[in-house]
Amino acid sequence: MARYTLRQLEIFVSVAEHGTMTAAADTLLISQSAVAGAINALEHAFGAQLTIRRKAHGVALTAAGRYVLDRAKGLLHAATDLELHAADAGAELRGSLTLGCYGTLAPTVLAALIDNYSKRHPYVDLDFFVGPQSDVQEGLKSGTLDLAIAYDLSLPNGLRGHRLFDTSPAIVLAADHPLAIYPTLRLEDVADEPMILLDVYPSRENTMMMFSSAGLDPNIRFRTLDYEVTRSLVGRGMGYAILVQQPASNQSYEGRPLAVRPINPAVRSVPVSLIWPAAIKQSQSVEAMITLARQLYTPPVNAGSDHGDI
Q1: Of 183, 213, 177, 181, whose CA–CA distance to 195 is shortest?
Q2: Does pTM top 0.85 for this prediction?
Q3: Is the pLDDT reported for residue 303 higher than 80?
């Protein structure tokens, strides 16, 4: 029999997330002495110091504390999941799920997942977040996101994922650009042309790595933080861009025609993965989203499957 309680774990997680016992006590509507007592009881049960309590500087976690935090979140998720589904023996999925998505992937991937999932599991409170890859990763680590769709490039340790599909970078030009007459283009063909760089991680790093690997230095004219602004500038003939995701219509937001040309020789494809924290046991609602994503986006037979910890 465990010598600790779920309530003690809940208090510990709150302290870790808020950084002070005072903030945790205010959030949980209990006294500071109750918070301190719960932490002391956990440390006694585990035989390890979990926190470093610094006067006027809040609470920091020890290595043991960080280990317990990851697993405590998983236990609390599992306990909530059990409570939600016990009454109907799991016949209907219930609970909540927050799905994150990297901004440029969202228009082509997110809507289909949300639409199909909502129809299959109408009792799950489904929400989503779209933003930069760094914010998506932080959301997974902090627990504000249950899982996310992102490029599988330089992901931090502690995440587990399943590759959904691969996508290839392409050169995007105004339809009347002189180079648009060619069915494929080399990086050498555009290296001296003005570039509109989508200056967000990891798109920026992937683009620059492609040119560096080819021994080239792109001529960057403008840097943007927005995918559609990038395409609009290209549509007006102000430069070309290297983009991974392509809308169904080859037109800019203003309706100007664009030409999308594959890169020859082909550059490394970019894997798109569904990712989640490795240490947390996923709820039934999260597992259902993983199953759905695998059904909608099945990679080629020889493309491999789970990455494991990435």
Answers
A1: 177
A2: no
A3: no
